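Annex B, item 7. Sequence and structure tokens for protein A, then protein B.
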Amino acid sequence: MDDVPQTIKSSVKFFRSVGYIGFADLVKSTTDYSVIKLDIESNNDDKVLYDQIVLSANDLIKHGHKTRQRFQGNRINDIGNAIEDVFVQELRKTTLSPELLSKSGYPDMKITDQANQVTYLESKAVSTDWNSSFRSFYYLDGKKIASDARHLLIAWDLIEETPKYWQIKGWKLLDLFHLKVKAKLEFNSSNRDLYQKELIIAEM
């Protein structure tokens, strides 16, 4: 146990020195699966995939304008979850087969197209400055990734028209193949770890 402090010190030093790394490299190293670049110029299957995602996103916006649909919620994350559910319904109107994955962790959904290609799609609700330095994308362990795939992200541009009622103004579609991510060392504990009897010195 004497070497534990030195091990921790070395780990902290390593994380501070890592800097930015390629998202594709991170996925490969944590899952053994490859991130495939979307190629809409020379791959017809990719072009169809791209066109149908764009069509679904535009149809969601058009439906919102036509019906004056607004999303209600206290937190932007709640709004994001509601949009995911509606967007999946739009995707199902195309030849794509979307599947919502568990809510926690990357990615949000898996899409299988007619060519049996797999695409992982992350959905983000954005209501702040697009150039903000606020951390908005997280990757932990890739436990939901089960194949080589394209990795895309769709970001919904939201405005709070009235308190707790949000409208989608637009969207951005990203290919994460060239994304750079920064490692962050974090030490944490659960409530079970934290509120142990031997740690509590007073309570009411």
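Protein B:
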Amino acid sequence: MRFKSLFMDIRPLRQSPPFRRLWAGLSVSAIGSKMTVFAVALQVYNMTGSSAAVGALGLFVLIPSILFALLGASIADAVDRRKLVLATSICQAAVSVLFAGQAFAELNQLWLLYGLVALLSILGSVNAPALRTFLPRLLPRELIPAGAALNMFTMHFSSILGPVLAGVMAAVWGLKACFLLDALSFAAALYSVARLPAMPPEDTLGRSGLRAVGEALGLIRNNQVLWGALFADLSLTVLGTPTALLPAINAAHFGGAAQTLGLLTGAMALGGLFGTAFSGPLGRVSRPGRAMLLACFVWGAALVGFGLATSLWLVLGLLVVAGMADVICVVFCQTLVQVTTPDSYQGRVMAAEYVVNMGGPQLGNFRAGIVSSLSSPAISAVSGGLGSIVAAVLVALAAPALVRYQMRTQEDKEATPVSERKVECSCSQNSIY
């Protein structure tokens, strides 16, 4: 294998101008959004001096996401998704302007900040699932893993750069500058979405609401690839997310210094960047379900080592490995969900994945904290890692279609005789659905 092939596959940026514009626009907007997350948390803490008040922001993000994601995504399966994303993005930009307005007016009202965060979460729960349906429309099937990796790179890069920029700007110009820059950054996202072609759902069902949500849940339940991938991803985060343990681990082994806590906190994000930067081989994996479960196993093993290790550099290295495994798992999960979901269900199934991605880490940190308080941080980390490994094994046994699923490129299909394609199609449907 050539060394060059290890690096992130950027063919989607070269081959698809619409995807390139969308990726660039959303990358700019993502940095602005992370600045707002930083600024809101700091403003709440400056107002209250309470970590609990800051922590409550997570509830105002999580609860609306769970309540509105599937119902909102049912709309995405009945209307032009580009128009829906454009409309919700405009509303998100308006909320960012309100954040900036309250900062300039120095209102300092806690209820207002919580309300704006909840409103932004509601809009995001409709916007994000609809936005994720764009990938199969803009890229051929064989480039979807590379496109997902590029999107993951944006997420991790913005998670690092956004707070850093926000900290500098807050120190120099105040929090109002962070909110204002986020509002301005939406212009890049709006431009890139507006330039996309129309994206009405294929074979649209023409309806939305609870019945449409129930149909999507039924599809997931009867599709081993879908529920297996989603359950594996959910298990990884619910059983293994270690973020809540980092302060206690830092105090127990490394003296509790703020500097080492910063290193521990950034290690997984750094692993995420490494995982996307060296994601080139992921596009050549023919059995993504098997690779995803293997990544879950590596994630669990890294967390077991994290709980047992006492050397700072070893702990940092294991967290980097865990971050890389997390990226691989998410890339393959998104790929499997997108290539196996009928277009008319894309919005609702993407919403289910969105809920998994939003709720899993929050529940995982809650689990880790409870187990740690009842035993110790080390036991919480080790048990979470072992639980992730066991969950991956159980998914492999319960969803054999996920393990067997094989990606086929368009070139592979064209090289297959017509008679064999018919047999292959029949077998594939029986094994997956």
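Comment on protein B: The radius of gyration is 22 Å.
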